[in-house]
Specification:
This protein is α/β, with parallel strands linked by helices. The chain has eleven helices and 15 strands. One of its GO terms (molecular function) is hexosyltransferase activity.
Length: 382
Protein backbone atom coordinates (compact mmCIF):
# COMPACT_ATOMS: atom_id res chain seq x y z
CA UNK A 1 0.00 0.00 0.00
CA UNK A 2 1.35 3.42 -0.98
CA UNK A 3 1.93 5.77 1.92
CA UNK A 4 0.35 9.25 1.77
CA UNK A 5 2.86 11.93 0.81
CA UNK A 6 3.71 14.61 3.39
CA UNK A 7 5.74 17.83 3.10
CA UNK A 8 7.50 19.08 6.25
CA UNK A 9 8.92 22.63 6.14
CA UNK A 10 11.62 23.56 8.68
CA UNK A 11 13.66 26.77 8.80
CA UNK A 12 16.30 26.83 11.56
CA UNK A 13 17.96 30.20 12.09
CA UNK A 14 20.21 30.44 15.17
CA UNK A 15 20.80 26.95 16.51
CA UNK A 16 19.80 23.41 15.60
CA UNK A 17 16.97 22.81 18.09
CA UNK A 18 14.14 23.28 15.61
CA UNK A 19 15.87 21.02 13.12
CA UNK A 20 16.56 18.28 15.66
CA UNK A 21 12.98 18.25 16.90
CA UNK A 22 11.58 18.30 13.37
CA UNK A 23 13.68 15.31 12.34
CA UNK A 24 12.55 13.40 15.42
CA UNK A 25 8.93 14.02 14.39
CA UNK A 26 9.68 12.98 10.82
CA UNK A 27 11.22 9.74 12.03
CA UNK A 28 7.86 8.84 13.56
CA UNK A 29 5.91 10.16 10.56
CA UNK A 30 7.92 7.87 8.30
CA UNK A 31 6.03 4.90 9.68
CA UNK A 32 2.80 6.19 8.14
CA UNK A 33 3.89 8.73 5.49
CA UNK A 34 6.32 9.29 2.66
CA UNK A 35 8.04 12.37 4.07
CA UNK A 36 9.58 15.14 1.98
CA UNK A 37 11.62 17.29 4.38
CA UNK A 38 12.31 20.84 3.24
CA UNK A 39 15.23 22.36 5.18
CA UNK A 40 15.83 26.09 5.01
CA UNK A 41 18.93 26.38 7.18
CA UNK A 42 22.49 25.15 6.58
CA UNK A 43 23.30 21.47 6.31
CA UNK A 44 24.73 20.46 9.71
CA UNK A 45 24.98 16.77 8.91
CA UNK A 46 21.70 15.73 10.53
CA UNK A 47 19.29 13.62 8.48
CA UNK A 48 17.31 10.36 8.53
CA UNK A 49 18.10 7.11 6.80
CA UNK A 50 14.72 5.73 5.83
CA UNK A 51 13.35 4.64 2.44
CA UNK A 52 10.31 6.90 2.93
CA UNK A 53 12.37 9.99 3.84
CA UNK A 54 13.46 12.53 1.19
CA UNK A 55 15.70 15.39 2.33
CA UNK A 56 15.54 18.60 0.26
CA UNK A 57 17.81 21.57 0.98
CA UNK A 58 16.86 25.15 0.15
CA UNK A 59 19.63 27.71 -0.29
CA UNK A 60 20.31 28.47 3.39
CA UNK A 61 19.46 31.64 5.25
CA UNK A 62 20.44 32.48 8.83
CA UNK A 63 19.49 35.34 11.16
CA UNK A 64 21.76 37.78 12.96
CA UNK A 65 20.98 37.78 16.66
CA UNK A 66 21.94 41.47 16.94
CA UNK A 67 19.25 42.91 14.66
CA UNK A 68 17.27 39.84 13.48
CA UNK A 69 18.21 40.46 9.85
CA UNK A 70 18.55 37.54 7.45
CA UNK A 71 21.84 36.82 5.73
CA UNK A 72 23.63 34.38 3.46
CA UNK A 73 25.95 32.22 5.63
CA UNK A 74 28.27 32.00 2.61
CA UNK A 75 28.44 35.80 2.52
CA UNK A 76 27.86 35.99 -1.24
CA UNK A 77 24.22 36.85 -1.97
CA UNK A 78 21.55 39.12 -0.56
CA UNK A 79 18.59 37.65 1.30
CA UNK A 80 16.33 38.75 -1.57
CA UNK A 81 18.43 36.85 -4.10
CA UNK A 82 18.34 33.75 -1.96
CA UNK A 83 14.57 33.96 -1.54
CA UNK A 84 14.26 33.95 -5.34
CA UNK A 85 16.45 30.84 -5.56
CA UNK A 86 14.44 29.15 -2.84
CA UNK A 87 11.19 29.93 -4.64
CA UNK A 88 12.46 28.19 -7.76
CA UNK A 89 13.49 25.16 -5.69
CA UNK A 90 10.06 24.97 -4.05
CA UNK A 91 8.30 25.25 -7.40
CA UNK A 92 10.45 22.44 -8.78
CA UNK A 93 9.80 20.22 -5.75
CA UNK A 94 6.07 20.71 -5.65
CA UNK A 95 5.43 20.78 -9.39
CA UNK A 96 2.34 18.62 -9.94
CA UNK A 97 3.17 16.35 -7.00
CA UNK A 98 0.09 15.89 -4.77
CA UNK A 99 0.66 16.02 -1.01
CA UNK A 100 -1.86 14.63 1.47
CA UNK A 101 -0.46 16.83 4.25
CA UNK A 102 1.80 19.82 4.82
CA UNK A 103 3.40 20.62 8.19
CA UNK A 104 5.14 23.94 8.81
CA UNK A 105 7.46 24.03 11.81
CA UNK A 106 6.75 27.06 14.04
CA UNK A 107 5.10 29.23 11.35
CA UNK A 108 2.70 31.07 11.70
CA UNK A 109 3.68 31.45 15.37
CA UNK A 110 7.18 32.51 14.32
CA UNK A 111 9.40 32.83 11.23
CA UNK A 112 7.35 35.81 10.05
CA UNK A 113 10.16 36.86 7.71
CA UNK A 114 9.37 33.70 5.73
CA UNK A 115 5.62 34.34 5.54
CA UNK A 116 5.59 34.89 1.77
CA UNK A 117 7.54 31.71 1.14
CA UNK A 118 5.43 29.53 3.41
CA UNK A 119 2.07 30.88 2.27
CA UNK A 120 3.09 30.41 -1.35
CA UNK A 121 4.11 26.82 -0.55
CA UNK A 122 0.73 26.11 1.06
CA UNK A 123 -1.14 27.68 -1.86
CA UNK A 124 0.80 25.61 -4.39
CA UNK A 125 0.10 22.43 -2.44
CA UNK A 126 -3.61 23.30 -2.37
CA UNK A 127 -3.62 23.99 -6.10
CA UNK A 128 -2.56 20.40 -6.75
CA UNK A 129 -4.69 18.87 -3.97
CA UNK A 130 -7.51 21.04 -2.65
CA UNK A 131 -7.99 18.61 0.27
CA UNK A 132 -4.40 18.79 1.53
CA UNK A 133 -4.29 18.88 5.34
CA UNK A 134 -2.20 21.80 6.63
CA UNK A 135 -0.89 21.84 10.18
CA UNK A 136 1.69 23.61 12.32
CA UNK A 137 4.24 21.97 14.60
CA UNK A 138 5.18 24.07 17.65
CA UNK A 139 7.06 23.44 20.86
CA UNK A 140 5.71 24.07 24.35
CA UNK A 141 6.52 27.78 24.65
CA UNK A 142 6.33 30.73 22.26
CA UNK A 143 9.00 33.42 22.53
CA UNK A 144 7.75 36.71 23.97
CA UNK A 145 7.52 39.62 21.51
CA UNK A 146 6.56 43.29 21.66
CA UNK A 147 2.98 44.22 20.70
CA UNK A 148 2.11 40.63 21.52
CA UNK A 149 -1.70 40.95 21.40
CA UNK A 150 -1.67 42.51 17.93
CA UNK A 151 0.86 39.94 16.72
CA UNK A 152 -1.13 37.10 18.22
CA UNK A 153 -4.31 38.21 16.48
CA UNK A 154 -2.48 38.12 13.13
CA UNK A 155 -1.30 34.60 13.92
CA UNK A 156 -4.81 33.54 14.87
CA UNK A 157 -6.19 34.81 11.58
CA UNK A 158 -3.50 32.95 9.61
CA UNK A 159 -4.37 29.72 11.43
CA UNK A 160 -8.12 30.23 11.06
CA UNK A 161 -7.84 30.88 7.34
CA UNK A 162 -5.09 28.45 6.32
CA UNK A 163 -4.55 25.68 8.89
CA UNK A 164 -6.47 22.59 9.91
CA UNK A 165 -4.55 21.77 13.10
CA UNK A 166 -1.84 22.98 15.48
CA UNK A 167 0.27 20.24 17.07
CA UNK A 168 1.59 21.49 20.43
CA UNK A 169 4.54 19.41 21.56
CA UNK A 170 4.02 19.72 25.28
CA UNK A 171 2.58 17.85 28.24
CA UNK A 172 -0.21 20.12 29.54
CA UNK A 173 0.37 19.00 33.13
CA UNK A 174 3.66 20.92 32.94
CA UNK A 175 3.10 23.65 30.33
CA UNK A 176 -0.04 24.74 28.54
CA UNK A 177 -0.09 26.70 25.27
CA UNK A 178 -2.18 29.57 26.67
CA UNK A 179 0.57 30.39 29.17
CA UNK A 180 2.62 32.01 26.40
CA UNK A 181 -0.14 32.62 23.82
CA UNK A 182 -3.04 34.62 25.24
CA UNK A 183 -5.34 33.99 22.26
CA UNK A 184 -5.13 30.20 22.54
CA UNK A 185 -8.86 29.83 23.28
CA UNK A 186 -9.61 31.19 19.79
CA UNK A 187 -7.87 28.13 18.38
CA UNK A 188 -9.12 25.58 20.90
CA UNK A 189 -10.74 23.30 18.30
CA UNK A 190 -7.50 23.08 16.30
CA UNK A 191 -5.06 22.57 19.19
CA UNK A 192 -3.71 19.04 19.62
CA UNK A 193 -1.38 18.31 22.55
CA UNK A 194 1.03 15.55 21.62
CA UNK A 195 3.31 15.35 24.63
CA UNK A 196 6.96 16.39 24.43
CA UNK A 197 9.11 15.28 21.49
CA UNK A 198 12.23 13.27 22.23
CA UNK A 199 14.83 12.12 19.70
CA UNK A 200 14.34 8.52 20.77
CA UNK A 201 10.83 7.11 21.30
CA UNK A 202 12.16 4.68 23.89
CA UNK A 203 13.30 5.91 27.29
CA UNK A 204 16.88 5.04 28.20
CA UNK A 205 17.40 4.77 31.95
CA UNK A 206 20.87 3.60 32.79
CA UNK A 207 21.41 1.89 36.12
CA UNK A 208 25.20 1.89 35.87
CA UNK A 209 26.39 5.38 35.00
CA UNK A 210 30.00 6.26 34.32
CA UNK A 211 31.93 8.80 36.39
CA UNK A 212 31.53 11.41 33.69
CA UNK A 213 30.07 14.91 33.55
CA UNK A 214 28.78 15.97 30.14
CA UNK A 215 28.80 19.72 29.45
CA UNK A 216 26.88 20.65 26.30
CA UNK A 217 25.94 23.85 24.48
CA UNK A 218 23.37 22.68 21.96
CA UNK A 219 24.24 24.45 18.71
CA UNK A 220 26.97 26.43 20.44
CA UNK A 221 25.79 29.97 19.64
CA UNK A 222 25.58 30.90 23.33
CA UNK A 223 26.83 29.42 26.59
CA UNK A 224 30.60 30.03 26.63
CA UNK A 225 30.50 31.25 30.24
CA UNK A 226 28.79 28.03 31.38
CA UNK A 227 31.46 25.82 29.84
CA UNK A 228 34.32 27.89 31.21
CA UNK A 229 32.79 27.94 34.70
CA UNK A 230 32.36 24.17 34.66
CA UNK A 231 36.01 23.69 33.77
CA UNK A 232 37.04 25.82 36.76
CA UNK A 233 35.66 23.22 39.17
CA UNK A 234 37.23 20.27 37.37
CA UNK A 235 40.25 20.00 39.73
CA UNK A 236 37.82 19.67 42.67
CA UNK A 237 36.23 16.57 41.12
CA UNK A 238 39.26 14.49 40.07
CA UNK A 239 37.27 11.23 40.00
CA UNK A 240 35.11 12.53 37.11
CA UNK A 241 35.93 12.79 33.42
CA UNK A 242 34.70 16.13 32.05
CA UNK A 243 33.37 15.86 28.49
CA UNK A 244 32.55 19.06 26.58
CA UNK A 245 30.33 19.16 23.48
CA UNK A 246 30.52 22.79 22.30
CA UNK A 247 28.29 22.36 19.22
CA UNK A 248 28.76 23.21 15.53
CA UNK A 249 28.36 26.97 15.94
CA UNK A 250 30.78 27.44 18.86
CA UNK A 251 33.04 30.47 18.60
CA UNK A 252 36.62 30.09 17.42
CA UNK A 253 37.77 31.70 20.67
CA UNK A 254 36.05 29.02 22.75
CA UNK A 255 37.36 26.23 20.52
CA UNK A 256 40.90 27.54 20.98
CA UNK A 257 40.51 27.80 24.76
CA UNK A 258 39.11 24.27 25.01
CA UNK A 259 41.92 22.86 22.88
CA UNK A 260 44.51 24.53 25.12
CA UNK A 261 42.88 23.26 28.32
CA UNK A 262 42.51 19.73 26.96
CA UNK A 263 46.15 19.46 25.89
CA UNK A 264 47.87 16.85 28.08
CA UNK A 265 44.85 16.77 30.42
CA UNK A 266 43.33 13.26 30.61
CA UNK A 267 40.44 14.56 32.74
CA UNK A 268 39.07 16.68 29.87
CA UNK A 269 37.73 15.43 26.54
CA UNK A 270 36.44 17.77 23.81
CA UNK A 271 33.78 16.33 21.49
CA UNK A 272 32.72 18.98 18.95
CA UNK A 273 29.35 17.39 18.22
CA UNK A 274 27.65 14.21 19.43
CA UNK A 275 25.31 12.62 16.90
CA UNK A 276 24.33 10.05 19.53
CA UNK A 277 23.85 12.69 22.23
CA UNK A 278 20.96 11.00 24.04
CA UNK A 279 22.75 7.65 24.15
CA UNK A 280 25.81 9.33 25.66
CA UNK A 281 23.65 11.31 28.09
CA UNK A 282 22.06 8.11 29.38
CA UNK A 283 25.48 6.87 30.53
CA UNK A 284 26.88 9.90 32.37
CA UNK A 285 26.56 10.83 36.05
CA UNK A 286 25.55 14.44 35.42
CA UNK A 287 24.56 16.78 32.59
CA UNK A 288 25.40 20.49 32.64
CA UNK A 289 23.75 22.28 29.73
CA UNK A 290 21.65 25.08 28.37
CA UNK A 291 17.89 24.72 28.76
CA UNK A 292 16.74 24.36 25.16
CA UNK A 293 13.75 22.18 24.35
CA UNK A 294 15.64 19.24 22.85
CA UNK A 295 18.28 19.02 25.56
CA UNK A 296 15.57 19.13 28.23
CA UNK A 297 13.74 16.30 26.50
CA UNK A 298 16.95 14.27 26.33
CA UNK A 299 17.33 14.76 30.08
CA UNK A 300 13.74 13.65 30.78
CA UNK A 301 13.98 10.66 28.47
CA UNK A 302 17.19 9.40 30.08
CA UNK A 303 16.39 10.58 33.61
CA UNK A 304 19.89 11.95 33.90
CA UNK A 305 20.70 14.18 36.90
CA UNK A 306 21.01 17.65 35.40
CA UNK A 307 21.89 21.28 35.95
CA UNK A 308 20.42 23.54 33.28
CA UNK A 309 21.40 27.12 32.48
CA UNK A 310 18.59 29.07 30.79
CA UNK A 311 19.27 31.53 28.00
CA UNK A 312 17.73 34.68 29.47
CA UNK A 313 17.20 36.80 26.33
CA UNK A 314 13.55 35.69 26.40
CA UNK A 315 11.24 33.80 28.75
CA UNK A 316 11.29 30.44 26.94
CA UNK A 317 14.16 28.52 28.51
CA UNK A 318 13.71 29.90 32.02
CA UNK A 319 9.97 29.15 32.09
CA UNK A 320 10.49 25.58 30.89
CA UNK A 321 13.39 25.01 33.27
CA UNK A 322 11.65 26.38 36.36
CA UNK A 323 8.47 24.38 35.66
CA UNK A 324 10.47 21.19 35.45
CA UNK A 325 12.53 22.12 38.50
CA UNK A 326 9.26 22.63 40.41
CA UNK A 327 8.44 19.00 39.61
CA UNK A 328 11.82 17.84 40.95
CA UNK A 329 13.04 16.78 37.51
CA UNK A 330 16.25 18.86 37.45
CA UNK A 331 17.97 21.89 38.96
CA UNK A 332 18.34 25.38 37.47
CA UNK A 333 21.45 27.56 37.64
CA UNK A 334 21.92 31.19 36.68
CA UNK A 335 24.88 33.49 36.02
CA UNK A 336 25.18 34.25 39.75
CA UNK A 337 25.72 30.53 40.38
CA UNK A 338 28.77 30.25 38.12
CA UNK A 339 31.34 31.07 40.80
CA UNK A 340 33.50 28.03 41.54
CA UNK A 341 32.20 27.62 45.11
CA UNK A 342 28.50 27.91 44.22
CA UNK A 343 28.71 25.77 41.09
CA UNK A 344 30.68 23.03 42.85
CA UNK A 345 28.04 22.90 45.61
CA UNK A 346 25.22 22.57 43.08
CA UNK A 347 27.07 19.92 41.10
CA UNK A 348 27.67 17.81 44.22
CA UNK A 349 24.01 18.15 45.24
CA UNK A 350 22.71 17.16 41.82
CA UNK A 351 25.01 14.16 41.60
CA UNK A 352 22.83 12.73 44.41
CA UNK A 353 19.55 13.53 42.60
CA UNK A 354 16.73 10.99 42.88
CA UNK A 355 14.16 10.95 40.06
CA UNK A 356 10.54 11.73 41.10
CA UNK A 357 7.57 9.45 40.36
CA UNK A 358 5.96 11.89 37.91
CA UNK A 359 5.27 10.38 34.49
CA UNK A 360 5.84 12.98 31.76
CA UNK A 361 4.35 12.58 28.27
CA UNK A 362 7.38 12.02 26.01
CA UNK A 363 5.85 10.39 22.93
CA UNK A 364 5.09 13.59 21.05
CA UNK A 365 6.56 12.47 17.73
CA UNK A 366 4.66 9.19 17.64
CA UNK A 367 1.46 10.88 18.82
CA UNK A 368 1.76 13.53 16.07
CA UNK A 369 1.89 10.80 13.44
CA UNK A 370 -1.00 8.95 15.04
CA UNK A 371 -3.19 12.05 15.27
CA UNK A 372 -2.50 13.09 11.68
CA UNK A 373 -3.09 9.57 10.35
CA UNK A 374 -6.43 9.41 12.17
CA UNK A 375 -7.49 12.81 10.82
CA UNK A 376 -6.71 11.81 7.24
CA UNK A 377 -8.45 8.45 7.69
CA UNK A 378 -11.57 10.18 8.98
CA UNK A 379 -11.54 12.45 5.94
CA UNK A 380 -11.29 9.45 3.66
CA UNK A 381 -14.19 7.70 5.39
CA UNK A 382 -16.47 10.75 5.51
Amino acid sequence: MTKPRLLFYCQHLLGIGHLTRSLAICEALNEDFEVHFLQGGPDVGKTLKHPSFHHHFLTPLLMRESDCSLYDPAGVKTAEEIFQERQQSINTLLGDLPFAAVITELFPFGRNKFKGEVMDLIQKARTVNSMVHVSCSIRDILVEKKDSVEREMKMVRLVEENYDAVFVHSDPQILRFEETFSQATRLQEKLCYTGFVTESPKAKHSLGRRNEILISMGGGVVGDELVLAALEIMPSLPEYLFRVAPGPYASEALKKTLAEKAANNPQLRIEPFLNNFEEELSQVALSISLAGYNTMMNILNTRTPALVYPYMANIEQNLRATRMADQGLLSVIYEKDLTPADLLKKVKNQLQHQWPSLEVGLKGAKQTSKLLSNILQERTNS
